[in-house]
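Lab meeting prep.
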Amino acid sequence: METTALFDQIPQEIAKRLTAATEQIVVAVARFTDRDLFDILCKKAGLGLTVRVAIPDDARDLGSARLNFERLRNIGGEVFLLPASRDGQPTIEHNFCVIDRTSVITGSHDWTRPPAGSDDGLILVITNSPADGTGADDDGNIAADYLDAFTGLLQDHGLGPRASGSAETRRRLEVIRHLLMLEDWDAVTAQVEKLRPDSRAMGLDPLFAALRAPADGIAAAWIDDYLQGSRERTLARHERTALLRLTVRALDYQITALREEQADIERQIHAFSLRANHELGDLTIRHLALQAALRRRQAEADPALQSEAERAEAEYQDYREANTRARRTPPPPSLAPADLGELKRLYRQTSQRCHPDKVDAADQDRAKDLFIRLQAAYRNNDLAAVRAIHAAVRTGQFGAAHGIPLTDTESLQHAIIVLRHDLDRVAAELQALRDTETYRTLHRLTDWDAYFDERRLTFEDANLRIEETLTRMQQRAADPDDTERTRFQDCLRARPDILVQGLSGQAALSFELLRRYPRQWDWQALSANRALRWSPALIALLADRWDWPILSANPALPWTAELIQRFADRWDWDVLSDNAALPWGLDLIERFTDRWQPPAARHLRPLWERLQRQDIIDLMDQAPVPPVPSPDAEDDTGNDLTQQGTGFDDDLLF
């Protein structure tokens, strides 16, 4: 059985699965007002698919201004309006939809269109495992269980057909009861198979469900009820019990899905926070230090600001210590999509086996230890550790927490109350995570690299502005009137051409200023500007603006092999090969062997000096010989190349 939890765009996800149906759609929901989903059901019914819908007879969803369920009936669909429960219980315990007898959609989402911007809730898509061709697994064929629950729901409200029992059926049930007492399981199986063709009509589906564990006595008790009591009351009670059991399972699945989503968000926040500490930590420390220095200067002029200066200093010291601790842990490694999928799958399987709530009391200490290790490995993308814990849990023989008896309706109802409470608690914890600033930030991101590039530039700009403020404060102390700066501004106002050219080529402009006036800057002059605070982030975010041949010659860039590799397809390699500021060496030459042009040779003097005479002979013997010019060949000046000398007297060479 495969379970997929969906938290966003839920109506669209349901619509996609309804549209893919080819045989049957069965729906039981507490609210149904989504017109788009209703139109899909009508379309499918018109195409000949079996479409059955059960909803409460609720005035909020019925009437002239609501969905026209008669339209669905008129084109072949079945609509069942369930009367209100006499005991005050919800008419439908939880929503579900069965598609093509193989998959189930269930969860907290009603089939109503949520208001724009609201939380969609949660749905689970549960698909029968195809492992044995029948969809059966440890939990049985859940789609068939839900179809049975749908039939029971109708019968519980007097809307489904019932067949009366026959003498033959009663006699065979008595035989099965005796065989269960004798624990003759093979004989039980043979007798049960004879009842299977009429099981639905005779209301025997709960018996088949109980016989999956024949030794627990539930099947025998069911037969006693069937034979000795009122059959109608017995069927109703067991149909109610089966539906409650499905509700328990669905709530348990939802809690598991929320816990998995919570663990995944914690994993993402952990990775994001560590990367921020590593990539932005130094800039943040510098920013807080500058802010503290600025507050001290301001406090010197105004003692009333002393408390703000002390707070700024404390914030700087606290962050520096916290960042130092955080950077002791490296960021989690990036995983390929296939490896990330395996990590999540193994975590899901393992957490369900070793979660302290899933094992009996005797195993809880051991399970808690493994679960803590599992969470740590999952947060750090440690696939090898998760594999090892998964293997250990599979062979650990944990005792499962005891389940609730199938026929104990009171216990089931109590369990539902407890599970709904747990579901609300886990949902609140998950929402608290989603409300954190870190999650809201990373949830918007599609490219972490671009985000951190821009954040670096933002910090650099902010730091530059504070530095400028501190410099102005110092200059103002030396020159209160700042007359020289004022005179220079007057000159530049008179000559805007000099202003733009001079700023573009000479000023240490911030990223914010570059983005603010993109059409006014001289981007050729900017590409040659040695005063800019060059960084890979600045180059990447304005990549389409630079003059790349000029940029290739700029010695002020933070040249590294990684920077060259990142923009390998943009550099002018003729110009780059002549740039002496590159970190020239054998490693750089080898990394880009096919890219370099001949001017690169002049930057390799230490390597040339290492060659010995025999090295030169061996290399030159292997070097290609230029072709001899044709008799009619001329150079660019029109001179006959065949008549030009080599500059050497051949007689001196031999």
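Slide two material, second protein:
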Amino acid sequence: MKYTFRFSADSGMDAGLSREWLLSNERGDYASGTARGCATRRYHGLLCAQTAEGKRMLLSAMEDCVRIQGREYPLSCRLHPGTAWPEGWKLESMLKCSRDEVSRIFRLPLSCGGCVFLQRSMKLCTDECRLLVRYELLDTPDASSCGKAELFARPLISCRPADHLRRADPAFAGSLHAMPEGDPYPGFSLRPHANIPPLVMEISGSGMHAPSFEPAPDWYYHILYPVERERGYDWEDDLFMPGAFACSLGAGSPAWISAGTAPLADAPGCLWEKIQPESPLHDEPVLEHLRRECSRFLIESNGETLVTAGYHWFGPWGRDTFIALPGLTFLSGRIEQGKKILAQIGRQVRGGLVPNLLGNGNGGASYNSADASLWYMLAVQRMAEECPGETDFVREECWPVIKEILTHFTRGTMADGQGGMLVRTDPRGLLHVGNPQTQLTWMDASIGGVPVTPRHGCAVEMNALWFNALEFARAFAEKCREKPPAETGIIPVLRKEFRRVFIPPAKDRATMGGGLYDTWSPESGPSLRIRPNQVIAAALPFSPLSIRERTAVTACVRKHLLTPFGLRTLSPADPSYRPRCKGNQEERDMAYHQGTAWPWLLGFYAEALWRGGYKEKTARELLQTVSPLYERHLGEAGLGSISEIFDGDAPHEPGGCIAQAWSVAEAFRLLLLVRREWPEAWKKWAAAFPCGSGSTNGETTDTENAICEY
């Protein structure tokens, strides 16, 4: 799907600032900014390179302009104290965004009374760290008669970790080197620090005025990023300006500027044409759009295939990888990439623990979660179900890892430094994790080392995943005609124990809304808080719950936690409920799992409905409820993608990352599940779905575009 924003002469500077475009490639490099063209985050920039140590912002912006008939027309904008400058936003008439290209059209009024239209388009090369910017005067009568047009572009460079800010540094000028004489493309290279990739920028054009680069190093000071201030962070940046590119423009004769980590090896126009979308697999536009969006999170780095958890700031995480993996790969026609990821991470298991923070892309691995291993086993199970022809792969690559995890979890793993184990099972099979000082499940926010949402002891989804893994192991062993692992012998006892500790007795049933306890421990008993983790127990292929109990869980979740954009992490009736996830880091951490809604949980909610035996009517109600996620949200934050989180209270404003892997993957899986299991509900909903969405102020839609009028 494509998104088109039209700006009038009366459009204010703020129009479109909350909507963010994102280009990314299979390496994990990205370019991103606002629909209005003005950076509001430290993460906004034109070339951010993915490295083994993390994301590195190389090119933050360009100050570009066109000179026609002696008048200079700015095309860019930055925020400085008290002003927005230059005022390119006043000339912008249209923005077009798709998965692979972002284009802006500027209306340039001429002194003679006519006007010229300039289009500036950007793409990221698929398999190399390179941004291509294309400038072209649209072929109109005024463009043909206006005389010579000259383009000037001054790069604004940061060369910093993406989550840092830059202060003016004299070392930059000393590392600036113009391209040697005879090079086909004028430009420069810059590498001010050894831990930052080099930046190479070049210009190409075919007009009367030969392209050139004139060094004139300088610094631009006090660039402001207001979203960072809202989030409680430093928000003032300095950017290095190395000099100016220049060339002439004519109608039908584009100019190109390339920014990469190596010199151009091919003409920019040839590289541009190579950037093509994947061949479609689905006829339904929303399914195909989400399938393609899933590919954004699959990256290749140092010979490995990884899942980057979210843009702009998350790297590869084990937990996120395996929750998202079915939607990203097995259900999206990318089976080989899914297999590669399972095999790679399987080889990194230590003591039965899958790393939560993966080393490649983060600078080092971290084994600080108890559930990543359980999500790994569920991902293997999903693959075995969806790809029955891959039994040999599962047996050879994954089965030994699963048996290792079962063994270590049963014996105990993750030493606490005091002679105990933070992950262990008791004699009746229940899985115990953590202590009051740790946060080892997905609800892992902490402030000053103290968990915001303490869930040590027996967590409901952890024990449901553990039960499901044991049942899968028993079934797979039988399929392979081998003796089931010894650990599976506890299954009958564990089933009874799970039901004993997580299903509330009559005295607590009303308090818990008919659902399950979220946690239980021998010392403190059950937690009397309604949380969404119980829906995972109701959704898994093997569950200790009966069908009737699954339906009771979904009824509880529907009443207390369901929103159009995800499941709340805490019931609004709870005194600790936080309706908004806003403010500084501490304020957001206090709300992160205390009411904030998470889209990824919707996939499990839909699966729980299906396994509970619900019919077409319930599926229609589900689709009606979550329609705003697909129809509105895809065009309101990260254009074409799904955010990490939403406020628990209406209007459920999005927050966190603008594009989150498990949000997209599970939203995609939900629709595939509905299409397969409730086909009549799906047909009716899909037929009415607008192919593009997410706007205010005079929105119209057609089969390709959401058109937003400002």
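Talking points for slide two:
The chain is about 30% helix and 30% strand.
The first helix runs from residue 141 to 145.
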